[in-house]
Amino acid sequence: MPNVVKGSKQEKMVVVPYRPGRRFLLVSFLVLGVGASAIGGFMYGYMNTLRNQQSEQATQQELSEQLSVIETENSALRRQVAILDRSRVMDQLVTEEVQETIFSLRDRVAQLEQDVVYYRQVVSAETEDTGLIISQLDIDATREANRYRYKLVLRQQDADGDTFLTGHVNINLVGSQGEVQQILAIRDLSAEQDQLDIRLRFKYFQNIEGELVLPDNFVPDRLQVAAVSVEPVEKSINQSFSWVVER
User: Least C-beta-crowded within 10 Å: which of 8, 30, 46, 195?
Assistant: First the structure.
């Protein structure tokens, strides 16, 4: 009998068969499970870390490409800004040069205009009493109403007998028909003239003559004579003669 202390709690004893191999297997399975769990956790963490690294690398690569594109665009924009700045500066310089040229040309034109006025005065003073002059203008009545004879004499003052005066003359008749003022070219009134610019070529004088046939109800007022000589002296004459008829 086993020794039993009186009054103490007695635990029941269970007798199990002793199987050391099974215990070893259980311990082995437990160790393998824990190891497998550890390896699985490590591999899961490693794969997650690898995926994160790959994702970060892809993101970094994309950001690098975007940064490269932005840097390229910025470089192009900087070049454009530099070109625009240079163009602006060049435009400003060109504008200033053009303005200076315009001012200079204006001053030159003003000086030339003054010179032209002076030389015209000198030439006019020298040619006033020489070259082409209007010597005579006569208007004579005829037996027919509205028909008149005219004679214009142009002369070369101080003619030397060797030099031809060349140029042309225009003759217009100014008057009114009713309440309307009209200017009629002598070409339209005289059968003897067929040109507006009547040619002049003479040594001493030249007569322009013929007959005028006035339109009905036309009231003449004056004759306008504009003559121009080209040689030997450039000269122009503009004179108006009142309509005076010799009977």
Answer: 8
